[in-house]
Amino acid sequence: MKDYADYDALGLAELVRTRQVSAKELLAAALSRAETAQASLNCFSALFPDLAETQIEGGLEEGRFAGVPFVTKDLSVEVKGAPLTNGSVAWKGYKAERDSVLAERYRKAGLVFFGQTTSPEYGLTTTTESTLYGQTCNPWDVTRTSGGSSGGASAAVAAGVLPLAQASDGGGSIRIPASCTGLFGMKPSRGRVPMGPGRTEGWIGMSTVHAVSRSVRDSAALLDACHGRETGSRYVAPEPGQTYLKDVTTDPGKLRIALWRQAPNGTMPDADAETGLLATAKLLEDLGHEVVEAGPQLNGAELSKYALLAISAHITAAFDDRAAMLGRAVREDEMEPITASMVNLGRTVPMVELARANGLFNAAAITFEQFLDDDGFDLTLSPVTHRAPDKLGTMALTQDGEAMGKAISGFGSHCPIFNQTGAPAMSVPLHWTEPTDEAPCGLPIGMMFGARYGDESLLFRLAGQLEQAKPWAQRRPPVWVG
């Protein structure tokens, strides 16, 4: 299928629906491209065409994405019969015996599971590198990171393997990979997308799940297909007024947007990110919006400290669960060095610190919305990353902890606040750096918009407008397999 990459996921589904192509033909097209991309980018942890063929032969659900090839991330989301390692040596050999609730909803939408994309161990860093699978490369420059922790998904979509892939975000892990590879990435509100069975939240509500995509409408339609309450939900994000897909073509009206330059931890955008930020502000004003430099007052150092404590406690519990499965303790040599240090930290965190973390995140959510309310802002604008994608190795879990922590803290510095508050945010591919010998097409830096809790609709409305005003889907990286 020569024109495969000219279609987004909804476009491919329309070809299947009108019998211009079959689901098996799309699967073959995706698999051949996946194998080619894997050789250059190392973006897949597993391919399982046998499961995909069985799914097709068993009859697909007649959902909006019926017949479209799809991949999940190697982190938490279970697909029955497929491996799941969470990017960890300790989980090597594990195979899912059930579908997660999200996978069930994807099946109902008609998506065909054929593979799994790489993740760093437990999604604990903003690059996709692991002892188990090695380094995942950026198709815009293979010496650089494709972001993390959904870097396998972002590399595969950006290179043209498929138009849409599942991703997750506990501190920027949808938005940062989208930014690094020139894709659209929506991080939904807390409680919007199911995370079960067995749990209905991750990392005391900081983690959520959705996707990276080339088109805005694919992201919107996928969220339409999978959002909503699951059994045992502690909280549920408010229902949208109309479908998210319809929001994409709905005029957002005139918006008042806060240009939030300095991150809560004090990080400022470098020259490349600043150029993109100012160009985006100008584009917004040309579209009739008001952009004012302002930002909420938040204690980034304190928020980062308590996020680390909370995540470390949860990771420790996750390895204890794995130890129970194995019938023995997980050894330190089965963990990345920085992961092992977090597990050791997690065993020392007093329970009162977790209560303080939860309280601090609640207070940050109140501060963020009060800032929007008091100054009449609809959204915030900041760079997703404060510099172009780093060279591989600088943020890996095998690096010196102090150097790695410094690299991460200055990279996607605005991102974690939306995990801590539970508010939605999106990465929109609106800027590329100037070309260089290593990156002849330039390097992407995404622009991030944040909204009030539950207001993905407004984000999709603006994203649809921006996509029309400054299209990005036809930009092709040097490593292109479409």
List the helices and strands and how they pair.
Blueprint: H1 9-17, H2 23-41, E1 44-47, H3 49-57, E2 69-73, H4 101-108, E3 112-117, E4 129-130, E5 134-135, E6 137-138, E7 141-145, H5 151-158, E8 164-169, H6 175-181, E9 184-187, E10 208-213, H7 216-226, H8 244-248, E11 256-259, H9 271-286, E12 290-293, H10 300-326, H11 337-346, H12 351-375, E13 379-383, H13 401-409, H14 416-421, E14 425-428, E15 447-450, H15 456-469
Parallel strand pairs: 2-3, 11-12, 11-13
Antiparallel strand pairs: 1-3, 4-5, 6-7, 8-10, 9-10, 9-14, 13-15, 14-15
Helix pairs in contact: 2-3, 5-6, 10-11, 10-12
Kindly provide the name of the CATH class: Alpha Beta
Low-confidence stretches: none
Helix/strand order = HHEHEHEEEEEHEHEEHHEHEHHHEHHEEH
Biggest beta-sheet profile: 8 strands, mixed
Per DSSP E runs of 2 or more residues, the count of β-strands stands at 15
Range of helix content:
25-40%
Q: What spatial order of strands do you see in the largest sheet? A: 8-10-9-14-15-13-11-12
CATH superfamily descriptor: Amidase signature (AS) domain
Radius of gyration: 21 Å
Q: What fold name stands as the CATH topology?
A: Amidase signature (AS) enzymes
SS-based class? alpha+beta
* Number of domains as seen in the coordinates: 1
Which CATH architecture? Alpha-Beta Complex
The gross shape turns out to be globular
Question: Briefly, what is this?
Answer:
Helices cover 38% and strands 13% of the residues. The protein has helices spanning 9-17, 23-41, 49-57, 101-108, 151-158, 175-181, 216-226, 244-248, 271-286, 300-326, 337-346, 351-375, 401-409, 416-421, 456-469; strands at residues 44-47, 69-73, 112-117, 129-130, 134-135, 137-138, 141-145, 164-169, 184-187, 208-213, 256-259, 290-293, 379-383, 425-428, 447-450. It is globular and about 55 Å long.
